[in-house]
Automatic annotation (TrEMBL):
One of its GO terms (molecular function) is tryptophan synthase activity. It comes from Actinomadura fibrosa. PANTHER family: TRYPTOPHAN SYNTHASE ALPHA CHAIN, CHLOROPLASTIC, TRYPTOPHAN SYNTHASE, ALPHA CHAIN. Pathway: Amino-acid biosynthesis; L-tryptophan biosynthesis; L-tryptophan from chorismate: step 5/5. Tetramer of two alpha and two beta chains. This is Tryptophan synthase alpha chain. Belongs to the TrpA family. The alpha subunit is responsible for the aldol cleavage of indoleglycerol phosphate to indole and glyceraldehyde 3-phosphate. Pfam families: Trp_syntA. It is an enzyme of class 4 (lyase). InterPro entries: Aldolase_TIM, RibuloseP-bd_barrel, Trp_synthase_alpha_AS, Trp_synthase_suA.
Length: 274
């Protein structure tokens, strides 16, 4: 199942999709699988599995802490694929969010092959644009994978055009200038970024109605913010708030209960937004 399938299903229900992120291997490999399944059961429509990396330049302190713990615990790329396979078996589109270096080191076509073999839907690549991603464009076509690139508040219309033209699955709109992390308020430029992105998609494919969804991420941490974003975006992407529930928990069972409660709150929020 592609990510767009989940977005289309949410749109048919007159709501935004809820997209949740967790890094593989945190708090353990099996714990991450259980956590992601809990999020699916509680209302996430799409799951992003982070590939732990030693230089997470875009990630804030919460995700950096979790990724560090995963690396210290010995997580490997094979564990990422195992996590994807287990989560994708729930029927929810499961993508890997990763910096490009680990994919390049693994071998682009081999990574795409093994991700597809695990049932993964595609890749989100925060530090790779389509101009530098020729090998990935080819590999994703060959293996039928989504490729999700990021647009930002600073992106020109020309840049948004080139990025969205290469996207498949959805477009990731980053609403903050800076690293990831839950915020007390959604950036005031976020609605305009989504509006600009949709307009450019629509001009390129007017006959298709501009159907490529736009998900907004970086900063959402509660149901009220999810409802606010759901009023103007096709998807609400949440990462740090989920990770924080596990970081702050004294044990996995408590963490899973916190994840379930937060997911249910956010899932209610994306429905209230419409």
């Amino acid at each position: 199942m592609t990510a767009q399938t989940a977005y289309d299903r949410a749109r048919a229900e007159d709501r935004a999709a809820l997209v949740g992120y967790l890094p593989a291997g945190f708090p353990t490999v099996d714990g991450a699988v259980e956590a992601a399944k809990t999020m699916v059961d509680a209302g996430c429509d799409v799951i992003e599995i982070g590939l732990p990396y030693t230089d997470p330049m875009m990630d804030g302190p919460v995700i950096q802490d979790a990724v560090h713990q995963a690396l210290v615990g010995g997580v490997r790329v094979a564990d990422v694929f195992r996590t994807v396979e287990a989560v994708a078996a729930t029927g929810v589109p499961t993508l890997v969010m990763t910096y490009w270096n680990p994919v390049d080191h693994y071998g682009v076509d081999a990574f795409a092959r093994d991700l597809a073999g695990a049932g993964g839907a595609g890749l989100i690549t925060p530090d790779l644009g389509p101009e530098e991603g020729g090998d990935w464009l080819e590999a994703s076509e060959a293996h039928g994978l989504d490729r999700v690139f990021l647009v930002a508040l600073s992106s020109t219309d020309e840049r948004i055009e080139s990025i969205t033209a290469a996207c498949r699955g959805f477009v990731y709109a980053a609403s903050l200038m800076g690293v990831t992390g839950a915020r007390t308020a959604v950036d005031t430029g976020a609605p305009r970024l989504v509006e600009r992105t949709r307009a450019i998609i629509g001009k390129r494919a007017p006959d298709a109605g501009g159907t490529l969804p736009v998900g907004l991420g970086l900063g959402v941490g509660n149901g009220a913010q999810a409802a606010e974003v759901a009023r103007f975006a096709d998807g609400v992407i949440v990462g740090s708030a989920f990770v924080r529930r596990l970081l702050d928990a004294p044990d996995l069972a408590t963490g899973l209960a916190g994840l379930r409660a937060l997911t249910e709150e956010l899932a209610e929020g994306v429905r209230k937004g419409r």
